[in-house]
Amino acid sequence: MEKDINTMGENPIQSEAEAWLGILYTCIKADHYISEAERKSLSRILYSKEKFKNVDFGPYYETAIALYKELGQLKYIKACCSWIETEDKETLFALALDVLLADGTLEKEEKSLIEILSNHLGVSTSMSSKIIEVMFLKNRGNIKV
After folding, report:
1. pTM
2. Which of 14, 26, 36, 69 has the highest Cβ tally under 10 A?
3. Which residues have a Cβ under 8 Å from the Cβ of 60 and sit 6 or more positions away?
4. Cβ(121)–Cβ(93) under 8 Å?
């Protein structure tokens, strides 16, 4: 059963880095299977960001797994999105799509997550459409793992 963030008192997410990892983890978990391509894509994305240059994401993975199980996908996404700075929202949305498409496919659950994430991050419909189009072009022909 999903807990309601509003009745929990405070957001269980404790940092921006934890929120980024949580969102991207939720994306690779959307189809209930984490492929090696998705796992590698997630690590590459997080460690390539200047803002996380000195962050050890190791401990955040355990937290992400636990909070995802405790809160459920929707509440966890909502909690994470509240930490994302305005100037990073479209970038993170594009990176989330990149993670979702890393295995070359987009399952029904992943399509639903795209809409949810777009709404919680406040990415406009027109920008969301542009990002989706570019990510499909970028990932066309990826090996299905």
Report:
1. 0.85
2. 26
3. 17, 18, 21, 22
4. yes
H or E segment to which residue 109 belongs:
helix 108-121
Per the CB < 8 A criterion, the answer to whether 71 and 79 are in contact is yes
Q: How far apart are CA 77 and CA 22, in angstroms?
A: 7
pLDDT above 70 for 118: yes
CA–CA dist 71, 1 (Å, integer): 8
What's 87's DSSP letter?
Answer: G
What single DSSP character describes residue 142?
P
d(CA 79, CA 6): 10
Rg (CA), the chain: 14
Structure tokens at 9: 């008192």
In 3D space, the residue among 143, 64, 81 whose CA is nearest the CA of residue 116 turns out to be 81
Is the pLDDT reported for residue 4 higher than 70? no
Print the SS3 string covering 25-84: HHHHHCCCCCCHHHHHHHHHHHHHCHHHCCCCCHHHHHHHHHHHHHHCHHHHHHHHHCCC
